[in-house]
Write a structure and sequence with these properties.
Layout lengths: L1 E3 L5 E3 L10 H30 L18 H12 L13 H4 L3 H4 L24 H15 L3 H11 L1 H25 L1 H15 L2 H12 L5 H8 L2 H19 L5 H22 L12 H11 L13 H5 L2 H30 L14 H22 L5 H23 L7 H15 L6 H8 L4 H26 L5 H25 L13 E7 L2 E7 L15 H7 L16 H9 L1
Antiparallel strand pairs: 1-2, 3-4
Helix pairs in contact: 1-2, 1-9, 1-10, 1-11, 1-12, 2-11, 2-15, 5-8, 6-7, 6-9, 6-20, 7-8, 7-9, 7-12, 9-19, 9-20, 10-16, 10-19, 11-12, 11-16, 15-19, 15-20, 15-21, 16-18, 17-18, 17-21, 19-20
Amino acid sequence: MMKTTGVGVLEMDIPKAPACCSQRWNLASLAFFGLMFVYVVRVNLSVAIICMVRVPRENHSATTAPVNLSLAELGTRSYDVQQESPEPEEDGTSADAVSTMSEEDMEDSCGGELGLDTSSMASTGEFEWDKGTRSRILAMYFYGYIFTQIPGGWLAGRYGGRRVWGVCQAMCAICTLLTPLAARTTVYFVYTLRFILGMAAGVSFPCVHAMLGRWAPKLERSKLVAFSFAGPPIGTILTFSLSALLCAYGFDNGWGSIFYLAGAGNLVWVCVWWMGTADTPSQHKRIGSLERDYILHSIGERPDQKVKTSTPWRAIFTSGPVWAIITAHMCNNYTNYTLLTSLPTFMKEVLKFDIKRNGALSALPYLCQAVVSVCVGYVADFLRERQYLSTTKTRKILQCTSFLGTAACIGTAGFLTCEQRPLAVFVICLCLAFMGFNRSGYTVNHIDLAPRHAGVLFGITNTAATIPGMVAPLVAGALTPNRTEEEWRTVFYICSATAVLGAVLYGLLADGELQDWAAPSPIEIAIDVTHHDVTVTHEKAPLDTPKGESTLDDQAQESKGKEDWTSKRGDNEETTVDDERKLQND
């Protein structure tokens, strides 16, 4: 049924296109696997470096029998190494600290063993890289990563995310495949590859946001973004488990196979990405007309809309809702990186957790985060579609729930002891589950505010959020010199306070509606009335224009000259604005 809006725009309710086998969900699926590979090539070195480096054996006891390195141990140690800052030797959280622990530290006061046998650390690795060298290798990725966030978003908005992300992911795959050769050539070659890898991977999230801004219908944004962003935790889980197996049983001395398989898999994804995606629904060759019209009508674009758009930089940086996203992203990343870098160490030092006997539990929190984020995405869009909550209220409620739930869980974790291990696992899983709520909070909010500039917005917020991610490990290390329960409690108190601050600021400043500076002008709507296309183009009119009167400003009409209002009907009749006025006068 056709209707006239408050600004005199002819509009029609387009039927919703099915989600099954749709091109918008194909895009979300490819984004899921693409972001999964972003984390696979990012994290794989953190595991492989344990197999690559020759570490001296520490004989704490003559009767100590060697045991196989478990998957969970590799995962835990790789997290400690992965997030090391340029001065990791001062924070006391690196994996190498395990090999220098005293016998007293290895004892479990709760009546068990930690399951960290240092005899397994004596490696047959090929390289004698010291701790500083290993730290610089891992840090090079983040040095490159921070530089391409904003440029990546701008390029994706200007030239399309399909090209930008496809080319950069191909670069990631090549750098990964060359890593074994580089390691056996010179460590400076490895430095260079990791820096380039970080720069290429830095465009990933902005490109995904830029494309979803043009593909995600308004009432499907939450679930499409949540599903796409479930890729990183799944990539982390797969990398830790499979890389540990490849270290022991893979080809090319074990560790080499990690990079070859990851790089080859990434190249396969790049080929599928190029064949199966397009920057906009109008450009896709295999999309149905029903789905194309549904998406374009929902986001307010016409089929011939250009991809290139100018970026309103001043409006972005003076927008309160944008600053709400920036602060939420920063507060979330502080807690997130604290957990990534310090939680395994907390479990080892305070909870005396037997990670070797409970290997599957090391992946459980991240699995919970992925599953909950997808489920909450469906709930968010259900609430909006049924008009139980507005978009603004939905974003605020879910994001504040994420922050406050995370604050309560991580604060509780500081009071847990080794006698409460089952409760500790539950609280940690619940904490990351609450963090999964943010996929339907600030993470998708960029697209709500400015669909055409979502890539640039995410690049800005992610650049700012990288700073607390780099600071968090240093703070945790500085506050836990003696590794006591009280010291760890202080670390978690800071995380809780940061999360509460994020909830307050986001609750006050956030918005879920299209911003004035991001709205297209002139408004252009293309609709399909049964078998006849009706295209209406006009300048923005006042909201209080009476129905039946012309929506064109008379003075603007005189200065700009005659402007056509063309309606294509059954016989392709054309009626100009002057003719329309004559009919009204008659």
